[in-house]
Each structure stands twice: as C-alpha cells, then as structure tokens.
Amino acid sequence: MTLPAHLGVLHPVEQLLVVLLAFGPFVVLGVVVVLQRRHAETDEPEPETEAVAGSTHTDDPVRDEPVG
Q1: Which of 8, 10, 15, 23 is spaced 20 to 30 A from 39 at the CA atom?
Q2: DSSP 65
C-alpha cells in the first residue's frame, strides 16, 4: 500500500494559516529590524563624562584616599 503524496486541495482558511506560518515570522522580524533602526537613528549618543578641571576624584578608590 502506498500513501498518497498529497491529501488534496487545502481549504482557504488552511491556505491562509500555511502562508502565515511560513512567512509570518519573517514579516515580524523585518518590522522589528526597521523599528530598531529608526529608534537607533533618533537616539543621540550620550556625551562622555569629562573630568572637571582641578578635580582630584578618580574612579580608583586607592587613588581617592588622601595622601599623608
């Protein structure tokens, strides 16, 4: 006995489900990529913190201790 390779024509609802399952994740991924790129373009880079002139504070706790 051989099994049929195809079970017949799909119902229109079944066709829609197959298309959504096949291509839906790629559509969602494309939308996410576009939105993330737009979001990245609108973000301005954060300004780097600069040391204040004359300040002796550092991020090193050993160097922050008073000398002598």
Answers
A1: 23
A2: S
pTM for this one?
0.50
**Alpha-carbon span 11 to 1, nearest angstrom:** 27
Q: How far apart are the first and last CA of the chain?
A: 96
CA distance 30 to 27: 5
CB 10 within 8 A of CB 18: yes
Euclidean distance between CA atoms 45 and 48, whole angstroms? 9
Assess contact for 64 and 57: CB atoms under 8 A: yes
